[in-house]
Model the fold of this input.
Amino acid sequence: MTVYAGQGSMALLWRAGSEPRAKPGPKPGLSVDLIVDTAIAVADEVGMAALSMRTVGERLGRTAMALYTYVPNKGELVDLMYDRALAQLPTGYDLSDGWRAALTRWAGDSCDFHVRHPWVLQVSQARPVLGPNEFAMLDTLARILAATGLPPQVLRGIVPALFDVVRGAARTIAEARQAPSQTGMSDEEWWQARSTLLLQVAPDFAERFPMAHWLESGGGEASPPPDAGEPYLERAARQAFRSGLTVLLDGIEAAGAA
Done:
């Protein structure tokens, strides 16, 4: 499910106007921030597909119609949710140890953020929301990248590559966490069952796909060590994230030295 945000009013996103006043009554008054925070909590718990003005209203003890006074529609709510969630990201990194250490920390923080809020991964990057916290995130990253000494025209191509590495890893980790409850099988159980079936249906697998076999049997990076506290697929995804990030950082370093 892909959600195209960035469809709502920029005025509400940037708070460039007065917020609707809460109506008097026995129930606590509503506000845009309260509605958005509640919507984020709902999306964290049940996902983007189950998010609606009605579900958010029910969580607040109100009808969906009561929310429309503050947020005109679900599309605009997603804009506000996305940008407000981004405020959780750090906005400053110490560059005393160099840009590479700072960028590594930035990537780890960004990956963890997306894993905490997997619904954010469903917000398309094709049309940015263009909210203040989205720009703060970009400003933070640009400040780190500026320390590489590379010109803006080069860095503009590096920014989406970094986001692809971060978001790709976070998506796999989030899916790995959801898989056991969705399928009723642990990672280890699934891999053992599928591997056994693969050997049955394709006993000549190594001969038919020699490079894939080479990659998985030792020609590539070793499998992550066992860890009872973390599912196999999540460990593998985090290891792949570190490896991919290292290669990308090596490329940035090489470009800076050229």
Remarks:
- The mean pLDDT is 90.
- The chain has twelve helices and no strands.
- Residues 152-183 form the longest helix (32 residues).
